[in-house]
């Protein structure tokens, strides 16, 4: 990787990390106050709705996130067509997914009027999140600075709104609306920045839309499967226990994943650079990919260890004594996140090799495994069982199932090789940080 590319990746990552650090600190403050105010039951309702929404949002996304990035890198002359077509498709699917989401909530909880109101207000964010399509351009150009600033503004606005709502002592429905307002503010700012910072002309092309859908078929199934086994625990937990258990478990999930923005920022910044290498040198491409995975592993291990040692302190200080049952699930989920980040970085390799059909098999079988484990373990161990099911599923999906196919067997080998590159990754990062800030 050239010095110019390293600087761009590092600068891009720094901006994303700044945004997510701000988001994390704000969330741990404001969301913790909301969780204490609402209590495990009402807080569980918001998180239960968020779990169901994420499934429909993933369906609305059509699996285009990483696909659009790779296709524009391969065919830069079609940049406007791809973005314009994806934007129109995302709008259509969002407007279709929203009423479907409401219908599912009514079907599952026909008598719960409060949950219905929460779903209606919180689900609006699904439509506003169409702006994600425009973020693809900023990711490709390594200009996430502007997206980060937009998100900081959106988080600030909604945090102020939430604090006012806490002061007014309103009901849970208003906090659900605040979530959608954040998506709306982000959408407005990012759209305005996109218009000002790029001369790309967005065009809808039926031919390109069909071509994207044809390629994204496997990606849609993979994305849906991933989100299902990521959210199945909360949904099944709510059906087998109650909203209070979902609230406690959600506290563990939030703390176990609040640090993931660090490796994800590194991965997202490196993605276009690594994929560019795929066109030039297969050997160097795999080397850079493995180095990125080494970085993700190092960061994940550090934070998992931190949460294992101090998790109980964070739970007690942030959420209060009502949520102390979340400590053991937090430790289990923190180590599960190590494999979750491995799966996230693997998406670069899947895209570079066009192994979407294998990824579909990995994620679909993992979804079935997770649902089966959730039912069995939650029945036996409650919220601890939900965490164990997640941990086992990630190991299966990331490391075990690739071994069943000749083409993908190499990934498990690359995973273990990446640990040997951790010292090299550390030296490169330290060198670049001193070069930038020294």
Tell me what the structure shows.
The chain is mainly alpha-helical and 438 residues long. The chain is 87% helix and 0% strand. The chain has 17 helices and no strands. The chain has helices at 3-61, 65-74, 79-108, 113-123, 125-128, 132-140, 144-168, 172-197, 206-240, 243-257, 261-280, 282-319, 327-353, 356-381, 383-400, 409-418, 422-437. Helix 9 packs parallel to helix 14. It starts with a helix and ends with a helix. The model has no long low-confidence stretch (mean pLDDT 80).
In short:
This protein has 438 residues and is mostly helical. It is built from 17 helices and no strands.
The biggest beta sheet is recorded as: none
Query: In angstroms, what separates the terminal alpha carbons?
Result: 21 Å
**Structural class, from secondary structure content?**
mainly alpha
Oligomer: single chain
Mean pLDDT over all positions: 80
Strand content: under 5%
Work out the helix count: 17
Enumerate the spans where pLDDT stays under 50 for 5 or more consecutive residues: none
Order of helices and strands: HHHHHHHHHHHHHHHHH
Tell me the radius of gyration. Answer: 21 Å
Helix content: over 70%
Structural shape: globular
């Amino acid at each position: 990787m050239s010095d110019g590319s390293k600087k761009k990746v590092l600068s891009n990552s720094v901006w994303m990390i700044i945004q997510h650090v701000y988001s994390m600190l704000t969330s741990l403050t404001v969301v913790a106050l909301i969780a204490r105010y609402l209590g495990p039951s009402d807080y569980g309702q918001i998180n239960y709705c968020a779990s169901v929404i994420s499934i429909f949002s993933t369906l609305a996304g059509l699996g285009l996130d990483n696909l659009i990035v790779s296709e524009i890198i391969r065919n830069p002359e079609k940049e406007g067509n791809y973005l314009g077509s994806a934007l129109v498709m995302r709008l259509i699917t969002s407007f279709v997914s929203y009423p479907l989401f409401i219908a599912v909530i009514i079907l599952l909880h026909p008598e719960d009027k409060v949950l219905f109101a929460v779903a209606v207000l919180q689900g609006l964010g699904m439509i506003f999140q169409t702006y994600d399509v425009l973020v693809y351009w900023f990711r490709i150009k390594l200009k996430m600075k502007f997206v980060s600033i937009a998100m900081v503004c959106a988080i600030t606005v909604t945090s102020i709104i939430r604090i006012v709502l806490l002061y007014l002592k309103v009901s849970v429905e208003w906090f659900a609306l605040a979530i959608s307002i954040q998506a709306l503010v982000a959408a407005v700012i990012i759209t305005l920045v996109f218009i000002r910072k790029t001369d790309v002309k967005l065009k809808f092309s039926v031919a390109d839309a069909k071509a994207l859908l044809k390629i994204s078929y496997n990606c849609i199934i993979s994305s849906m499967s991933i989100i299902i086994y990521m959210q199945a625990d909360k949904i099944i937990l709510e059906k087998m226990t109650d909203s209070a258990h979902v609230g406690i478990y959600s506290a563990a999930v939030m703390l176990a994943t609040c640090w993931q923005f660090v490796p994800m920022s590194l991965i997202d910044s490196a993605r276009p650079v690594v994929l560019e290498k795929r066109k030039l040198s297969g050997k160097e491409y795999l080397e850079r990919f493995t180095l990125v995975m080494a970085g993700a592993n190092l960061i994940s291990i550090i934070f998992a260890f931190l949460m294992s040692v101090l998790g109980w302190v964070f739970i007690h200080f942030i959420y209060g004594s009502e949520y102390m049952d979340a400590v053991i699930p937090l430790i289990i989920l923190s180590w599960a996140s190590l494999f979750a980040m491995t799966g996230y970085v693997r998406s670069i390799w899947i895209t570079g090799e066009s192994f979407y059909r294998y990824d579909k098999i990995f994620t679909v079988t993992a979804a079935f495994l997770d649902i089966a484990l959730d039912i069995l373990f939650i029945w036996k161990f409650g919220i601890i069982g939900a965490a164990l099911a997640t941990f086992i599923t990630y190991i299966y999906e990331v490391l075990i199932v690739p071994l069943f196919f000749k083409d993908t067997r190499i990934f498990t080998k690359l995973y273990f090789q990446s640990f040997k590159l951790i010292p090299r990754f550390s030296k490169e990062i330290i060198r670049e940080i001193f070069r930038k800030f020294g």
